[in-house]
Amino acid sequence: MPTKLDITQIPARQLLQPSADSSLAPYLLRPAMLRTMPLPDEHGFRTIVARKFVDVKNEGTVYVEFDDAIGTYRATDLYKKQPQGPALYKNDGEATWSQRPEARETVTLKRPLPDESVLETTLPDKHPRVQSPGPQRSVEDTPASPRPGSTQPSQTPRAQLIDGPLQSLYPDKTASELETLLRSYNLSPGQQTRLHKDMLENLTIPEWAEQHKQMSRDTGNPRRHDLLYSEIEPNLRHLRNGTATTGLYELHLSLTHEFLDSFLVKAGYSRNRNNCLYRTDIPAVFRGDERTPFELANDGWMLPRYNHKPYATTQKAMSVTVSLKAAKMYGGDEPDPEYLLYNSQTNKYPGKQPNDASDDSDASDVSDVSDVSTTTNSQIASSGSESDSSLQLDLERNYETTRHKQQIQFVYAIDSRNMELVLGEENHAFNRAANGPNWFPDDDLEALLSVSRRGISADRIWVFDSSHQKAVRVKDLQDHVDDTDDAYARKVEERTHSGADNKDEYDRLIAGVAAAGKPVLLLSSDKDWFGNDIVWPSLSENQH
Fold first, then answer.
1. Structural domain includes residue 39
2. How much is the pTM?
3. What ranges does the record list as Polar residues composition bias (predicted)?
């Protein structure tokens, strides 16, 4: 998690007027969009709602997206009305960028990676993690690249086999041919270790390996995945939770496509229309969010406001995490100031702070930085399995903001049972071939829920108290205050919006819900909690 955001007023002298023939002219942001931008980070990025902006030296500020084809960022039209603009390069020792790289030793540009303690220091930052490609190679030829923070041996059994016994046995074969040969045997990591040991003693491929190769090709044999499953399945949760220490990121290099895909089905994964792996059996995910539990309960939904690019989930993507610790860190920071320009999640356009004198056109431009909804009318269309009604958007513009001083966020647990969940770690490990045309969750322990345009039903959302050991359903919280003192609840929310650090008031309300006999999720403080650890309390018959 980052520390408190430093917001800076951009001095007027920095608001440059580029020449009309500048190639960046169509991409430069208006001054109204720069007033509350955070300072550039160490990589020169100003990040707002996970979108990246950079200051181009002597030009101005532009929105950027990474271009895999050239291995760097390009200026990009925020509204997608222009083709991609010129390539940009970070200036050494500065927070600025330029259109031409500075003279330096030739290196392969990589997308910026987080520190090893990403969950301790950064909010979700939608940078891709895979290195920018050089010459195009098939995924089989691509060296395995472990996810940041994962522990990998200096040389895996697979590499030891290829560089040692197999090279000695087949001296005329290239390294690529040896990789293909070894892959045809569909050996588990443990079998590769056994094969390496056997071949050091006797330079030939043993009979057991030949028999396994034949069995792995028999698609009618229900036991052909058993050995691999027995080795990999116990490590899936460790992979998902970021605690894996085995070489799971090399499976795609060790197994044929058919064998790996059929194994993933056995292991409980499905593929959506975007070729991303997902599961529907994860009990819970978590999210830090500035929206109050009363807002979510009254609307009945948590809307997917950020307009994630497509090609990950079947419907709209909502970013969540499988780690309660990560959600606590995200939720422990102050809210993103861009979100606080909206008085409600149903506002389609941002409002203005009381002292904001910008004109209407500038204010409407800012609205696209934080995408409340991409619908073109006031109704969020019904879609998905939880779409028995519609939710109306408020199309008012230039209203006075009421929550721009809010200081606190909330941590929510989401009941994700029977929901499509695209898990970041598993896709990076098992599905790298799909990471080009599509995209995976970028951050450690991140996942994407596939939701309708209205998002997640409030029935699935539970709010934690400040200890993060007790959570109740947001609807039960709202019902409780309706039955006791609705005026008090409104005052609590108003104090939150006005900038009070009043988590203690929510704690008392949550305790009141628990005392009233409503379902409560109780977690101990002696462990790190992940989505698979959650066992939901049973709901009484009158709970819906």
1. yes
2. 0.69
3. 148-158
